[in-house]
Write a structure and sequence with these properties.
single chain, mainly beta, five-stranded mixed β-sheet, 92 strands
Length: 1123
């Protein structure tokens, strides 16, 4: 006979189940009412169906089981089971209740239950039928998952604004909720007022609901009706308020959906354009309103596109059509995290339109004619094809970031320092110049560039193509606190678990950090790099990790790298690598030539033991009942176990469920058990060694004073059917990991005496209700009724309260720490408080940083007070931070007189000077050279060059260091002297000459010179030896060789009139002057009066070939003089 295969049996079984379901009937059983006990007997597999009478649409109900055998039945309301809704149902207009027996129940089954109305606040039921509000009403509301509170308010006047003021947010409860108005959601996350505009009188509705990630919310709301500004109703173009030219009109953005329209008449001549000026006035400097405007032409086209302003504003624009132009003023929405945020102050502002207006900065076509501006002001200017606009501005601080934005399509920019222009004039290089390139221009539509030293800067704007009025803003962004760390030898120190915030403000703004892996065994570096800014355009930031040896050429590249992107929400990436003891440097930089905005980031690191437990063979051992940190997926050993033992595994992922399954294996790699829950157990099948595989932990954005979050795992054995801690004390709405253990042979469920006291089986976390205080028992049982001998249970007594402490103290506080070390402080509080709500604060974060768990990290020398507080109760301790070496108290840093140095092999030692900060600090300075083949350094800082190569010379004091890159060139030919071939030289005022001294020997390696003028009022000299005559007089120009310091002098005599025969005024009488005479004699050039006086050497009143011949004869030394 043919064998029936396994798949055949499975299909037959499935068919039988389908048939059984198909034959089950739904029996109509009449109706039931709310608040009335119902007793139902289920005798077979049929479904019993009831109609719920007298429901109110949107009402929420709960099920109360009046019998102890609730697990023997399944109850559905509107086809949703009790388990899928958490026992809370929202009713519709028509509602059905269905019951059937549980699969394992013994028939017949009799159950008793009742349906009760569920109200979490006084306004319920208002999920569908809204609560009516009136001017001045104040209500309290509660939102939980699945709840929606609907409200309406009636306005009596046209153009009124509705103010909703929310309260109840505090330092401990930061949950947020959504406000839905006119089909748009607005995120409410703090105390404050939201304004909405009602154009016409009538009833306006809105609703409140919690966000997906929020817990229960309890808040208050006040409602007020406010009158609009004096020009309401002008919410549309058709109802625009007439605005006579040259007069002011008041307006205010009263609320979301409010628009204010104004119209003015433009009268350009036929076929021509006419300029007008728009002014927006009365902005509050400290609390500015954010307003957008657009201007429409009479034919409906956009004359001026959307422009956002938040300060006094002037805009020049052109009108080419005759008729009524319309100005639309409205609110600027900010899109973030899928919600719209709007900031409204209802500020009283003014608008004015004036005739006329032009480019007030012309003529500014050269850097010498640059228009001076204040950074941050909006510039209205014209940039036609071929035109260039120059502006100059003062940068008040070092390392500020320049931001240029313009609405001129295709506009380009070049930025110069004032010093460079003064020295090199029109041949000056822009600040981002690269050798070998000509002028490099960058788009000015949204330019970010980090500047160097403070001072005067110039910007050239060009590339426009029309006569339109354009708007450009040139602004400066202050440097962050940790600047200047743009190079590795000025890296900002990082301290373990202390989150360091920083910005990348421009493509040329890398940030360098350093940290030390202490002596001992190697460690695994956990590095969290977070993007805390958000946006719809992705901007990427790369990071690279280097050993210190890289900078002396011993490493070829970085040892670790990665990147993070900007997203619509802040997020963090965690990177890890194994490191040996030593100093490491980390750079972070934008990976493109431009950025769309300031990049806001944070970085935090932690050193953990190297586990390398990615296989069973390398599994890390666990100690029973001891929590083990988990940061990566890996194997753990629970050792030798006996058959029949029950092993409980607990995985705390900080409130989130495990990212993947937790697996259990035997020594042969066979899977014994697995679970997606944080709390699981299994029974040992046979004697042997067993292993767990834990998933990696979630990575969150670290707050400023929060320690790095890791997951934890532990195990223990037990013989209980079920067990749990006896009591837990919590804060309202707080979640904690619950120590719960149970047998794998029994199924358990939880039941609470209090609403919203919940246990999450996936995460292992217990959450308290969001009410001021209370207590209740949370019961875990196998479902059998009380009194039944088969019942197994564990009871946890939970207490929650907002009660604040009357007393608090700090223990484990050291009197002193050294820079870079840390200590864990403990706050001693009474049993009625929850330790997680203790707040920690440092009086001086530059000395001591304190994390939210009480860990203090010494980051700088000095003294600081650490305070722990909760409510009105506080306690403080004082800790002194010292350096590593005796006598180094107060040391805050070390600097060098040079950070780069070029030497030549075989020459005398060069002195490098280190300075301790602050001035007067005493400490031992230790000098080291990373490549002693190239150069050595003595302990007093003298560097001796030995052979060609590169070395890093470091001066270290305490925990601080500074380094200089030393390049040793091959042996050079030294300079032995310098001279000029003439002692004096005569120049006509306004002329120039390039001096060329003679350096000996001719083959000297370094011929660089420094130049000095003794009287810069008479003549100046550039760094390349170009002398410019300024006024009548004499000055001495001194040239000094960089190599050897040899000097030579030449006297410069500046005359008011040209020297006879020196037509070009260069101080020489030669063929060049004769050529000018000949060209002038035939009309090819026109000489100046000064040049004509110098050219008429025969004094006949004519400039001709006769003068040229005399000049040539003098140059050839055929005649002694021209007089």
């Amino acid at each position: 006979m043919k064998r029936v295969g396994r798949w055949t049996w499975m299909l037959l079984t499935l068919l039988l189940l389908l048939c059984t379901t198909a034959f089950a009937k739904t029996i109509e059983c009449g109706s039931i009412e709310l608040e009335q006990p119902v007793e139902v007997t289920i005798e077979d597999d049929n479904m019993l169906r009831y109609i719920l009478t007298f429901p109110v649409s949107g009402m929420r109900v709960t099920v109360e089981w009046l019998s102890e055998n609730e697990n023997d039945a399944r109850l559905y309301l509107n086809n949703k089971s009790v388990s899928s809704t958490g026992g809370i149902f929202t009713l519709n207009k028509e509602n059905t209740i269905k019951l059937c027996a549980a699969p394992a129940a013994e028939l017949p089954v009799t159950v008793r239950f009742a349906l009760h109305e569920y109200r979490n606040d006084e306004q319920e039921p208002n999920d569908v039928i809204p609560t009516e509000l009136h001017d001045g009403d104040s209500v309290k509301f509660v939102l939980d998952r699945g709840d929606k509170d609907c409200f309406t308010i009636k306005t009596e006047k046209p153009g009124q604004d509705i103010a909703l003021t929310f309260g109840g947010f505090n330092y401990a409860d930061k949950t947020k909720f959504n406000l839905n108005w006119d089909k748009t959601e607005y995120l409410i996350s703090k105390n404050g007022t939201a304004f909405f505009h009602a154009t016409e009188p009538g009833v306006y509705g809105f609703s409140l609901s919690i966000t997906n990630e929020s817990k229960d919310v309890s808040r208050s709301m006040e409602v007020h009706l406010l009158d609009g500004d004096e020009n309401e109703l002008n919410d549309t173009k058709e109802t625009a308020t007439p605005l006579p030219i040259g007069t002011d009109a008041a307006f205010s953005i009263g609320g979301i959906n409010d628009e204010d329209w104004f119209s003015f008449e433009a009268v350009p001549e036929e076929g021509k354009s006419k300029l007008y000026t728009l002014r927006l006035l009365d902005f509050d400097f400290e609390n500015p309103e954010s307003v957008c405007y657009e201007i429409y032409a009479p034919d409906g086209t956009v004359a001026v596109s959307e422009t956002a302003v938040s300060s006094r504003h002037t805009r020049v624009f052109s009108c080419s059509q005759q008729g009524q132009y319309a100005v639309r003023l409205y609110l600027k929405y900010v899109y973030n995290s899928s919600k719209y945020h709007a900031s409204i102050q209802r500020a009283a502002l003014r608008i004015r339109v004036e005739e006329g207006g032009d480019d007030p900065y012309e003529s500014n076509d050269t850097w010498l004619d640059a228009a001076y501006i204040e950074p941050g002001q909006l510039i209205s200017h014209v940039l036609p094809s071929g035109d260039a606009d120059w502006f100059c501005f003062t940068v008040p601080e070092d390392h500020m970031t320049l931001h240029v934005s313009s609405d001129c399509a295709g506009i380009m920019s070049a930025v110069f320092s004032g010093q460079t222009l003064a020295e090199d004039g029109d041949s000056a290089n822009e600040i981002w110049h690269k050798d070998g390139y000509g002028l490099i221009a960058k788009s000015a539509s949204n330019l970010y560039w980090k500047l160097g030293e403070k001072g005067l800067y110039y910007i050239k704007l060009f590339g426009g193509s029309s006569e339109k009025i354009y708007s450009t803003t040139i602004s400066l962004i202050p440097p962050e606190a940790i600047e200047d760390n743009d190079v590795w030898y000025r890296a900002t120190p990082l301290y373990e678990e202390v989150t360091q915030a920083f910005d990348i403000s421009a493509p040329n703004d890398p940030d360098w950090f350093c940290f030390t892996v202490p002596e001992g065994s190697g460690k695994t570096l956990l590095l969290d790099v977070a993007k805390t800014d958000t946006g719809r355009q992705q901007d990427r930031v790369d990071f690279y990790l280097y050993r210190e040896a890289y900078f002396s050429g011993q490493d070829d590249s970085n040892i670790c790298s990665g990147f993070v992107y900007t997203t619509t929400q802040p997020y963090s990436e965690r990177f890890s690598c194994n490191l040996e003891p030593g100093t490491y440097y980390l750079s972070l930089e934008n990976n493109s030539s431009s950025i769309s905005r300031i990049q806001e980031l944070s970085i935090c690191y932690k050193l953990v033991p190297q586990l390398d437990n990615d296989t069973i063979a390398t599994a890390a051992p666990l100690t029973e009942r001891v929590w083990q940190d988990v940061w990566q997926a890996g194997y753990f050993s629970i050792g030798e176990r006996k058959a029949g033992e029950v092993v409980q595994i607990q995985y705390d992922n900080r409130g989130s469920k495990p990212k993947e399954f937790i697996h259990v294996y035997d020594a042969d790699g066979k899977e014994i058990s697995s679970s997606y829950r944080a709390n699981l157990n299994f029974r040992i099948p046979t004697d042997g060694v067993y292993y767990l595989k834990a998933p990696e932990c979630d990575v969150n954005v670290n707050a400023e004073n929060e320690p790095m979050h890791l997951a934890h795992i532990r195990y223990y054995t037990h013989n209980d059917k079920i067990g749990a801690v006896e009591s837990v004390t919590m804060r309202p709405n707080e979640s904690v990991f619950l120590d719960l253990w149970f047998s794998p042979d029994v199924s358990f469920s939880d039941k609470s005496e209090a609403e919203n006291l919940t246990y999450n089986w996936s995460t292992g976390y217990l959450t308290a209700p969001n009410t001021p205080e209370g207590s209740a028992d949370l019961v875990f049982s196998n479902g059998y009724p009380e009194g039944d001998e088969r019942r197994i249970e564990a009871v946890v007594h939970v207490t929650w309260s907002e009660k604040l402490l009357s007393d608090i103290s700090i223990s484990n506080a050291p009197q002193s720490l050294t820079v870079g070390s840390s200590a864990m402080l403990e706050a001693n509080v009474d049993a009625d408080s929850y330790i997680k709500y203790v707040s920690w604060k440092s009086s001086d974060p530059s000395v001591l940083r304190v994390l939210s768990n009480g860990k203090v990290v010494a980051v700088g020398q000095g003294e600081a007070v650490i305070t722990a507080s909760i409510g009105e109760a506080t306690s403080s301790v004082t800790i002194t931070v010292t350096g590593e070496q005796p006598g180094e108290s107060g040391l805050t840093g070390v600097s060098l007189d040079r950070y780069t140095l070029t030497l030549y092999a075989g020459e005398e030692a060069e002195q490098l000077t280190a300075t301790l900060k602050p001035e007067g600090t005493e400490a031992t300075i230790r000098w080291t050279s990373s490549n002693q083949t190239a150069a050595t350094v003595s302990q007093d800082g003298k560097i001796t060059p030995l052979s060609a190569g590169v070395t890093v010379v470091t001066a270290a004091a305490g925990d601080y260091r500074a380094s200089c890159i030393v390049t040793v060139q091959p042996k050079r030919v030294r300079v032995t002297g310098i001279r000029f071939d003439e002692p004096t030289h005569t120049l006509m005022m306004g002329s120039t000459v390039t001096l060329q001294p003679i350096i000996a020997p001719d083959d000297a390696t370094v011929k660089n010179l420094t130049w000095v003028s003794s009287d810069e009022q008479t003549a100046t000299v550039s760094r390349t030896g170009i002398v410019t005559a300024l006024s009548v007089g004499e000055t001495t120009i001194t040239a000094t060789t960089v190599d050897g310091g040899y000097s030579a002098e030449i006297k410069i005599i500046v005359t008011a009139a040209a020297q006879l025969g020196d037509v070009n005024g260069d101080g020489y009488i030669d063929a060049a002057d004769a050529l000018l005479c000949l060209r002038a004699s035939v009309g090819l050039i026109t000489l100046t009066p000064e040049q004509e006086a110098a050219a008429d050497v025969n004094h006949d009143g004519l400039i001709d070939a006769g003068d040229a011949i005399l000049i040539l004869r003098y140059d050839a030394r055929l005649i002694p003089s021209l007089n």
